[in-house]
Design a protein that fits this description.
Elements lengths: L2 H9 L22 H15 L3 E4 L28 H16 L5 E7 L1 H13 L1 H40 L3 E6 L9 H7 L1 H14 L2 E6 L18 E4 L1 H4 L3 H7 L4 E6 L5 H4 L2 H15 L4 E5 L9 H12 L2
Parallel strand pairs: 1-2, 2-3, 3-4, 4-5, 5-6, 6-7
Helix pairs in contact: 2-3, 3-5, 4-5, 5-7, 11-12
Length: about 325
């Protein structure tokens, strides 16, 4: 099997010659955008030799100025593919795909509504404070916030359609917002679910394979159960949420699972190469080869040796 063929088979839960692998990381600051980002991605793909090539997205929704009260969300404009951050991301994807391994399965990172709404003001107030502001503004006067998030969602729908037109096989959808310490179940259902699902449905309608990533600690994983029909592959923080691969198999029956390894501690960063190979094989042997892609909870450390990732890919091929 070739890489792309193998991943598609895993997504369909068909027999594979070996479990496919996929990992990603945030590149150094100077390699996040532009030509250096293209070069960094291509080097990473070549040296790690995983089945999946995942293109990062550091071309974020731009700063809009201070948002201190609910009415300030009116500053969020409507977005189009003509916006510079959109053009920059699409240009990077195009150039990477032109030179990357055509046999690999390609994913484009797409930030969910919660992350996309954080980005315009995160530099001003910090991640935690922005999350608190979401809750405060939603409870004080939700109208402007929800209208702004609708405009952001429409922009992300344009981006995901353009991704597919460029030739990407699918998206890696970075879901966020289900941490118990912020939104209630009812608030999550009202201000996150509809927008997430609109983007994911747009991706499915465009022909994308949807990898749903559920990020951060303290998640109420059950909040994502209704996303199953719009997801082909699910990936989450197995270790940071204490929600096992088997738990995920029960919550998302019939879906392919991606993960198995911690991303920022444990054997993946501290073990010898032999220990890393053995741990990778143990995950596969414990969970099984059907409907499984070997990966990590989330992005790996920027400074990790690419040889460590390649060792994981090689170990998977031995089973």
């Amino acid at each position: 099997m070739k890489k792309r063929e193998r991943v598609f088979a895993a997504v369909r839960r068909e027999a594979v010659d070996h479990v496919p692998t996929g990992f990603s990381l945030h590149f150094p600051e100077e390699c996040k955008t532009g030509e250096k980002a293209v070069e960094a991605h291509l080097q990473f793909f070549k040296e790690t030799d995983t089945d999946i090539i995942k293109i990062m997205n550091e071309n974020l929704v731009p700063d809009v100025g201070d948002i201190l009260r609910p009415e300030d969300w009116d500053k969020i404009p409507s977005y189009s593919l003509k916006d510079r951050f959109m053009q920059s991301q699409l240009d990077m994807v195009k150039r990477i795909l032109e030179k990357a391994d055509k046999d690999a399965f390609s994913l484009g990172t797409l930030h969910g509504i919660c992350a996309s709404a954080i980005h315009p003001i995160e530099a001003r107030y910090g991640y935690t404070r922005v999350r608190e502001m979401f809750c405060e503004h939603l409870r004080e006067n939700k109208g402007p916030l929800l209208e702004a998030w609708k405009r952001i969602t429409e922009g992300m729908c344009l981006l995901v359609t353009a991704y597919k037109e460029l030739g990407l096989d699918g998206i890696y959808y970075a879901g966020l917002g289900a941490e118990k310490r912020y939104f209630t179940d009812e608030e999550f259902a009202e201000c996150i679910v509809p927008f997430d699902k609109e983007i994911l449905k747009t991706a499915k309608d465009a022909g994308c394979v949807n990898f749903l990533h559920m990020c951060k600690d303290g998640l109420e994983m059950e909040r994502y159960a209704s996303y199953a029909d719009l997801a082909d592959v699910v990936n989450w923080g197995v270790y940071e949420t204490d929600f096992s691969l088997e738990d995920g198999r029960k919550l998302f029956p019939g879906k392919t699972i991606m993960g198995g390894l911690q991303n920022r501690e444990g054997v993946i960063v501290d073990g010898t190469l032999q220990e890393l190979r053995e741990a990778s094989k143990a995950v596969i042997q414990g969970f099984g080869k059907e409907g499984f892609i070997l990966g990590a909870d989330c992005t790996l450390p920027t400074e990790i040796s690419y040889g460590r990732i390649r060792a994981i890919a090689e170990a998977a091929r031995e089973i």
